[in-house]
């Protein structure tokens, strides 16, 4: 199995990038560990979403969901535009995201993808701290269960030595 972390909230992009680094460098040792991938939705729904829906069944998907995004932005009507999306006029983008999120989870689940929902109450310092702590503890435990040391990074050190050598950095 491989792991994928999806979010429909754009402000979670950097947290997803951190998650990918955390699990990749902590578990990816001795030919073990989950391959961590991320989806920033709805942007990735046509590419990665298609793969999740009908690709190989090697992935488990975790959705980071935000109950209260703390902002409101409504779609403004523009009758002159004529894009046939006028049924969205007046809707809050958070509600549009929730509908897309729910539909995606239903579709992927129906397609045989194991889906986990991790709910965040809001996006503030406390929630970010709890989320980061949760993932750090989960990564440490999973590394230990895999029989790898989640706190070293020999593979990273190897590429750094090669790069420094190629750049002519003197050895200490």
Gross morphology: elongated
How many E-type strands?
4
pLDDT averaged over residues:
93
Strand order of the largest sheet: 2-1-3-4
What does this structure look like?
With 172 residues, the protein is α/β, with parallel strands linked by helices. The chain has one domain: 3-Layer(aba) Sandwich (Rossmann fold). Helix content is 44%, strand content 17%. The protein has 5 helices and 4 strands, in the order E-H-E-H-E-H-E-H-H. It has a 4-stranded parallel sheet, with helices on both faces. Helix 1 packs parallel to helix 4. The longest helix is centred in the C-terminal third of the chain and has 22 residues, at 125-146. The mean pLDDT is 93.
Please specify the SSE layout and strand pairing:
Layout: E1 2-7, H1 13-27, E2 36-40, H2 48-54, E3 59-68, H3 93-110, E4 115-122, H4 125-146, H5 154-166
Parallel strand pairs: 1-2, 1-3, 3-4
Helix pairs in contact: 1-4
Quick tags:
alpha/beta, single chain, Rossmann fold, 5 helices, elongated, 172 residues, 4-stranded parallel sheet
């Amino acid at each position: 199995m491989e792991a994928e972390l999806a979010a429909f909230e754009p402000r979670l992009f950097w947290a997803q990038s951190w998650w990918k680094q955390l699990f990749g460098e902590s578990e990816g040792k001795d030919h073990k560990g989950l391959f961590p991938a991320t989806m920033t939705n709805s942007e990735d729904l046509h590419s990665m979403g298609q793969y999740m829906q009908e690709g190989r069944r090697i992935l488990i998907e975790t959705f980071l969901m935000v109950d209260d995004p703390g902002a409101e932005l409504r779609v403004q009507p523009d009758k002159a535009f004529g894009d046939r999306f006028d049924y969205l006029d007046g809707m809050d983008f958070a509600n549009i995201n929730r509908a897309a999120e729910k539909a995606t989870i239903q579709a992927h689940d129906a397609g045989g993808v194991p889906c986990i929902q991790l709910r965040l109450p809001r996006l503030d310092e406390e929630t970010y701290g709890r989320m980061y702590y949760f993932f750090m503890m989960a990564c440490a435990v999973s590394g230990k269960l895999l029989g790898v040391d989640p706190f070293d990074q020999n593979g990273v050190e190897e590429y750094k030595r090669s790069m420094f050598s190629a750049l002519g950095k003197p050895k200490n």
